Every structure is written in structure tokens, then in C-alpha cells.
């Protein structure tokens, strides 16, 4: 009897400690791919170890009285939850129909667990639904053994995820499945049959193999994630390399640009098309979506803009030719574009856009703000037609603002968008602030508008052009 008590205490403590260590690893690696399998191993091991300690009379006798009162409830909970934890853990390492079957089994097991514990709390009888729990356990074990031992079944219905078909996992799964299936069948005919020792050995073998494969998945996932992050860092450097390195030096104009991507790479783009010291074009584009696909299209716009630079003084024609160049290349993506041509010598500008937020023009003389929306259809929309263009006369002290919708769409804590009203008020209040300082102040204002815990929701591009 003493040997049996010592065995239960040692095995129960060992499984609880191993489970807690696995949970600690899962917490540390919580952002790693595949960490759910490690979490499942930890929970399963803690539950199994707790079950062993509950069965150890010597351990229970050493507990305070208030804890001894809780032991029957703890025993009922771990008895019914073991299958739930096991099937969910094993499900993380399977594919296709086997994964679906284990998902169904775990759902049924959870329902039985809730019902079994509720009945125990009400009547004190733990065994009312236990036979159904054992039946589901046998089904899960048969699925485990069948998809492990028979390759044809594994190939047809799915089995372990890639990298998990190692000898370690196969050996552990077979030992555990055969031992557990034999023990369950034996206890069905002989309820008093003591299989604790064999249960511990079988579960330990499977737990070790499962933990090994789970950690292998986490490690390989972290390597892939690290590789992707490195590639994104390179992509970010390349994307910034296609942006203008400086603003054009134009007489009587001061230009400031701010570019703040939402993620490592962005779908916003801006370009300058200078002709001489007095004339230049200003292009701002916003690709629908985010991330790598949008960034690739933004790179295509860079090349397309250079190819149509000969039409820099004609915004409508430039956008039309830009549409022709990009036609068939956008792969279902849409691009909004705004193009402003400024002749500082004649003090005239031309503007045209394709589905873009309006150009804002601050008139210093009248201290008023104009919204100029000369818009055609988005690039990528299967339609022809010209882009409307307008001619603008300006005076010293006037200010142009080109921007993407990442400026107007951020929301505050109550869900109110920054919007046109806030943007226009900001420009009125900052009418005397230099262009470079104003662009940075606008970016800071957007950051204070959104709650600190809310990540940036869109790419932000701002071009401020002051007429001296």
C-alpha cells in the first residue's frame, strides 16, 4: 500500500511540474506559431497529474481540511476534463478529417464533462456519465492508432501535420494508444483493475513525444517567422528607397512630405515630377489593402509615373496614361491617385484625381479653405473615360495639402473619425506654421486623436506645399 501511495505521489507531482513548465514555455512563446500544442501539453499534463494526486490518500490526508473537502469536486472535474484536454492537444498536430473528427470528439467530451460535473455537484454521483466518457475515449484512441499505424488511412483522411511523422511521436502514440485502449477495455470488464503504473508509463511516453513535436513546431515556426520579418525589413528598406530622397528645390515654394506606413510595408506612394526651378508635378497614390501586395503595386506606380512624366503638365492626360500603363497589372486591386501640377512662375496650378480625397487649398488673403475634388474613377475600375481637371490660380501665402485617407479616417475612443472638419480646423489653426513643422504636427495630432492602445489603421501620406 505504501509503495502504491508513493508511486501516485511521485507521478502526480512529476506530471504537474512538467505541465507547469510547458505552460510557462507557452506563455513565454505565446506569439509563436504552433504554441497551442505546447499549451495543450501543459494543460493535459497538469490535469493528469492532479488526477493522480487526488487518488493518493496519503497526499490528501496531508492537506488542510478545507482542501480535503474540495478533493471530490476536483476529482470529478479532472476525470471528465482529461479527454477534452487530450483531444484538443492532439487535434493541434493533425490535419484534414482526423482534425475534424477530433474536434467533434472534443466538443462532445466537453458537453459530457459539463453534464457529469453538474450531476456530481447535485447528487454526489460521479459515475453517471462516465461510461459515455470512456466510450468517446476509446473512439479517440482508435482514431489515433488507425491514423498512426496505417499509412493508407493517414494518406486518405489526414494525419499528423508536416514534420510530426517522426519516430519519436509514432512510438509514443502507439505505446500510449495500445496501453490506454487495453486499460479502458480491461476496466470495462473489471472495474477494480489497477492499471495506474502502466497508465503513467504510457502517458509519459506519449507526453514526451508530443512535447518534443510541439516544441519542434514552435521552433520551426519561429525560424520561419524570423525569416519573414527579415524579408519584410528588407522590403521596407527597398520601398523607402523608391520614395523621393528629398523635396524638389523650387523658387517661391516650400515643400514638406510625411510618410508613415501602417505596417512594415505600405500601399501609399508619393512622387515628385520636377521640370525646372519653377514647375513640378506632385503625385500621391493610395493602393487598396495593406501589406506586401499593396506595396508591390505601389512600386509599379513608381515605374509607371516615370514612364508618363512627359505629360507632367497635363494632370488629366497623365492620369489617363497612368491608367493605360497599369491596366491589367493591378490584379483586382484599386488605386486612388491625386496629381497636382504647379507653375510657380505664372502662379497657376492644374489638378486632377482618381477617386482620391479632395485637394485642400488655404487662401491666405481671404483666410478661407477650399476643397477641390476634381475626381474620376479609381484606377483598376474597368471603365474608360477622361479624368476631369481644373485650373487653379494661387497667391503668395497660399498652401496646398495633398493626403491619403489615412489622415481623415482614424477614430477616437468614441468611434468618431478625425474627418474633414477636424482636418480643416487644424489647417486654419496652423495657417502660420511652416510646412515642415505643420506636417509633423498633423501626424502628432492624429496620434493623440486615436487611443494609445489602438494601432495605426492605415498608411498615412501628407504633402504640404507653401507658396512664399
| Total DSSP E strands | 11
Q: What's the end-to-end separation, in Å?
A: 97 Å
Give the class from helix and strand content and strand pairing: alpha+beta
Gyration radius (Cα, Å) is 33 Å
CATH topology of the largest domain: Rhopdopsin 7-helix transmembrane proteins
Q: Which blocks of ≥5 consecutive residues have pLDDT under 50?
A: none
How confident overall, as mean pLDDT? 83
The SSE order reads: HHHHHHHHHEEEHHEEEEEEEHHE
Whole-number tally of structural domains: 2
Number of helices: 13
CATH architecture of the largest domain: Up-down Bundle
Oligomerization state: single chain
Helix content bin: 55-70%
Question: Mind explaining what this structure looks like?
Answer:
- It is a single chain.
- By secondary structure, the protein is of the alpha+beta class.
- It folds into two domains: 2-231, Rhopdopsin 7-helix transmembrane proteins (Up-down Bundle), CATH 1.20.1070; 243-467, 4-Layer Sandwich (Phosphatase 2c, domain 1), CATH 3.60.40.
- The chain is 56% helix and 15% strand.
- The chain has helices at residues 2-28, 35-55, 57-61, 65-91, 96-123, 130-149, 151-157, 167-189, 196-242, 291-307, 315-326, 419-429, 435-449; strands at residues 253-260, 268-274, 279-287, 335-343, 348-354, 359-363, 368-372, 375-376, 389-393, 399-403, 460-467.
- Strands 2, 3, 4, 5, 8 and 9 form a six-stranded mixed sheet that branches.
- A hairpin with a 4-residue loop joins strand 6 (359-363) and strand 7.
- Helix 2 (35-55) packs antiparallel against helix 4, helix 4 runs antiparallel to helix 5 and helix 9 (196-242) packs parallel to helix 10 (291-307).
- It is elongated.
- The model has no long low-confidence stretch (mean pLDDT 83).
Amino acid at each position: 500500500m505504501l509503495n502504491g501511495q508513493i508511486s501516485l505521489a511521485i507521478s502526480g507531482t512529476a506530471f504537474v511540474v512538467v505541465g507547469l513548465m510547458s505552460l510557462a514555455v507557452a506563455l513565454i512563446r505565446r506569439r509563436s506559431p504552433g504554441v497551442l500544442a505546447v499549451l495543450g501539453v501543459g494543460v493535459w499534463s497538469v490535469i493528469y497529474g492532479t488526477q493522480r494526486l487526488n487518488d493518493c490518500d496519503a497526499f490528501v490526508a496531508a492537506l488542510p481540511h478545507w482542501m480535503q473537502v474540495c478533493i471530490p469536486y476536483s476529482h470529478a472535474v479532472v476525470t471528465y476534463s482529461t479527454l477534452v484536454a487530450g483531444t484538443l492537444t492532439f487535434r493541434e498536430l493533425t490535419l484534414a478529417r482526423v482534425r475534424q473528427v477530433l474536434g467533434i470528439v472534443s466538443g462532445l467530451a466537453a458537453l459530457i464533462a459539463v453534464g457529469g460535473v453538474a450531476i456530481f455537484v447535485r447528487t454526489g454521483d460521479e459515475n453517471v456519465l462516465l461510461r459515455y466518457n470512456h466510450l468517446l475515449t476509446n473512439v479517440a484512441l482508435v482514431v489515433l492508432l488507425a491514423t498512426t499505424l496505417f499509412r493508407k488511412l493517414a494518406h486518405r483522411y489526414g494525419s499528423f501535420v508536416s514534420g510530426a511523422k517522426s519516430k519519436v511521436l509514432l512510438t509514443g502514440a502507439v505505446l500510449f494508444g495500445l496501453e490506454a485502449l487495453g486499460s479502458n477495455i480491461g476496466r470495462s470488464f473489471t472495474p477494480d483493475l489497477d492499471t495506474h503504473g502502466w497508465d503513467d508509463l504510457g502517458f509519459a511516453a506519449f507526453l514526451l513525444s508530443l512535447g518534443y513535436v510541439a516544441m519542434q513546431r514552435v521552433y520551426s515556426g519561429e525560424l520561419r517567422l524570423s525569416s519573414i520579418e527579415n524579408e519584410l525589413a528588407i522590403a521596407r528598406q527597398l520601398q523607402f528607397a523608391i520614395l523621393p530622397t528629398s523635396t524638389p528645390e523650387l523658387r517661391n515654394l516650400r515643400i514638406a512630405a510625411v510618410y508613415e506606413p501602417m505596417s512594415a510595408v505600405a500601399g501609399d506612394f508619393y512622387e515628385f515630377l520636377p521640370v525646372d526651378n519653377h514647375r513640378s508635378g506632385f503625385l500621391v497614390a493610395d493602393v487598396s489593402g495593406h501589406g506586401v501586395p499593396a506595396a508591390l503595386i505601389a512600386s509599379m506606380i513608381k515605374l509607371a509615373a516615370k514612364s508618363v512624366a512627359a505629360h507632367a503638365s497635363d494632370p488629366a492626360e497623365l492620369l489617363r496614361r497612368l491608367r493605360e500603363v497599369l491596366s491589367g497589372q493591378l490584379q483586382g486591386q484599386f488605386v486612388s491617385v491625386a496629381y497636382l501640377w504647379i507653375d510657380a512662375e505664372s502662379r497657376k496650378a492644374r489638378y486632377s484625381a482618381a477617386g482620391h480625397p479632395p485637394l485642400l487649398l488655404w487662401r491666405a488673403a481671404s483666410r478661407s479653405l477650399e476643397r477641390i475634388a476634381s475626381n474620376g474613377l479609381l484606377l483598376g475600375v474597368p471603365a474608360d473615360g477622361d479624368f476631369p481637371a481644373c485650373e487653379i490660380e494661387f497667391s503668395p501665402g497660399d498652401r496646398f495639402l495633398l493626403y491619403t485617407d489615412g489622415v481623415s479616417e482614424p477614430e477616437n475612443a468614441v468611434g468618431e473619425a478625425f474627418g474633414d472638419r477636424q482636418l480643416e480646423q487644424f489647417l486654419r489653426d496652423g495657417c502660420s506654421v511652416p510646412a515642415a513643422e505643420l506636417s509633423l504636427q498633423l501626424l502628432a495630432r492624429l496620434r493623440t486623436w486615436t487611443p494609445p492602445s489602438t494601432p495605426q489603421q492605415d498608411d498615412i501620406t501628407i504633402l504640404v506645399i507653401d507658396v512664399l
